[in-house]
Write a structure and sequence with these properties.
This protein is mainly β and 67 residues long. 6% of the residues lie in helices and 46% in strands. It has a single domain, classed as Beta Barrel (OB fold (Dihydrolipoamide Acetyltransferase, E2P)). It is built from one helix and four strands.
Length: 67
């Protein structure tokens, strides 16, 4: 599902390709007002609206202990 999201905080830039880590607030859909962090390529400012493809996060696979 694609949802509109507003950039609320710029966390920082990474690498030489212009990738920024940004916090977004989802503006529509089931996850309205949820805050997610995504990487963005290209110029972005606080208040910009972007369309995010995936608003769900799979925390179980990202934070599992190995071993």
């Amino acid at each position: 599902m694609v949802a509109a999201a507003e950039a609320i905080q710029l966390m920082g830039r990474m690498g030489v390709k212009g990738v920024s880590k940004v916090r977004f607030r989802i503006l529509e859909g089931d996850d309205k007002n949820k805050v997610v962090m995504r990487n963005v390529v290209g110029p972005i400012r606080v208040g910009d609206v972007c369309f995010i493809k995936d608003t769900q996060m799979d925390a179980s696979s990202r934070f599992q202990r190995k071993g």
